[in-house]
Each structure stands twice: as C-alpha cells, then as structure tokens.
Amino acid sequence: MILELLTLPLRTEEEVKGEIHFSLSTQFPKQQPAAALQSSLHFTSQGSPVMSTLLTNYPWSPRWEVSQMADRIFEFLTEECINFKKFCNDTVQQHP
C-alpha cells in the first residue's frame, strides 16, 4: 500500500515553480519513500503538468535518524530539481 503523504511547493522568491510529491509505504521507514517532481510551468501536449519518474535512487538507510534521512533527501532533490528544470526547458513547451 502506498500513501501520498506530502506535497511540497518548489519556490523561488517570486513564485511557485512546481511541487514535490512524496509517496510512503506502510513499511516506512524500513522502505524508503519515493518522490516525484511536477512542474507548474511546463505541460504535456495533453495539457497535463510535466512530472518526473518516481525517484528512489538516493542514499537511504532505515537505521538513520530522521534528521539524516531528511538531509539526504534534501541534498538529492536539490540536484534533481536542477536536472528536472533542464529537462523541462529542453523538451517541453512552457505555459505563457
């Protein structure tokens, strides 16, 4: 069973640029959460917001303290947001 527990906005000082969706299983923290990035500026040809694939390839250990889990996810997502922005800008139409 997967639960979508948390959605966080990706912000700059001016505006929201997208969201991060976290999915946690009932086995959390034994099983690491998955995350997906969603743009609020880029859309598919069907008009849906562009989303990344589920992201699970970041460092994770169920033995870590919660603060270390959060730090590792944050570090990974900081880099992944840059990659996702490049992907969106290179391949998808931007909403005016």
UniProtKB/TrEMBL annotation:
Keywords: Apoptosis, Cell cycle, Cell division, Chromatin regulator, Cytoplasm, DNA damage, DNA repair, Mitosis, Nucleus, Repeat, Ubl conjugation pathway. GO terms for biological process: cell division; chromatin organization; double-strand break repair. It is found in: Cytoplasm; Nucleus. Transmembrane segments: none annotated. One of its GO terms (cellular component) is cytoplasm. Its main location: cytoplasm. Belongs to the BABAM2 family. PANTHER family: BRISC AND BRCA1-A COMPLEX MEMBER 2. This is BRISC and BRCA1-A complex member 2. It comes from Kingdonia uniflora.
